[in-house]
Write a structure and sequence with these properties.
114 residues, mainly alpha, 2 domains, two-stranded antiparallel ribbon, 58% helix
Length: 114
């Protein structure tokens, strides 16, 4: 049996043309990008001022280590309990004061009974 190829397929010269055009376009893109970055470098050099980087502090701050967590917790709780159990001003100019939480609950319950 005699096998032959189909003659109506695409001509191989078109593939060669496409490859040649692709190479030329690649070279042109490379040249244009090189020229563009070269111009950017010239413009930056003409400005005279280089972009400044963020300056890091000269000395690094020491970490604030918690020496005694139990004492810190006790101090925090005393401060919070002091706020919850005493009278005091929140904003004296606006006339806003705080009252102890127990007294606030009593006033609330009295208001609810009415």
């Amino acid at each position: 049996m005699n096998q032959r190829h189909e003659t109506s397929d695409m001509d191989p010269k078109y593939i060669a043309y496409f490859a040649a055009v692709l190479v030329v376009v690649g070279i042109l893109v490379y040249i244009v990008l090189w020229w563009m970055f070269h111009r950017f470098e010239e413009q930056q050099a003409r400005r005279g001022n280089r972009p400044t980087l963020v300056e890091a502090p000269r000395t690094t701050p020491q970490p604030k280590l918690q020496i005694s967590p139990q004492d810190d917790l006790q101090e925090f709780l005393q401060k919070e309990n002091g706020i919850l159990t005493t009278y005091g001003w929140v904003d004296r100019e606006k006339g806003i004061a705080r009252i102890p939480i127990d007294r606030a609950m009593q006033l609330f319950l009295e208001k609810e009974k009415k």
